[in-house]
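Re: the 139-residue chain
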Amino acid sequence: MSLRFLLDTNTVSEALKLQPNLEVIQKLQNCVNEVSISSITWHELWFGCYRLPMSRKRQKIEQYLRETMAINVPLLFYDAAAAEWFAKERARLSAIGKTPAYADGQIAAVAQVNNLIMVTNNTRDYSDFQDLRLENWFS
């Protein structure tokens, strides 16, 4: 199968919750060969992990990132094409008073230039980006 989805940080981290959203878990399992993450999401996941004190929870997250995510989920990079797309969108949105969050814009750009559907629970954070396809697996 080919890649169809770019997962936002909140979608990836759902699998680590004590009581994860079962719809999200089901979709992750059903689409396992069609999902990817951006290098920005990878940073956000590790940043969240490293902010935790040494504990079983942190060890569980580190293990999940190293043994599940790193091995099974393709990592897509914020490259020149993504940077150009985001610069154009950032300028357009800033001109109308809707300056986007920088990390969200980078993640959106990776989805857009790779022709992927952005999967997030925060669709409002991404709704102003032009032609960005969004799905919310939480609802």
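The chain has one domain: 5-135.
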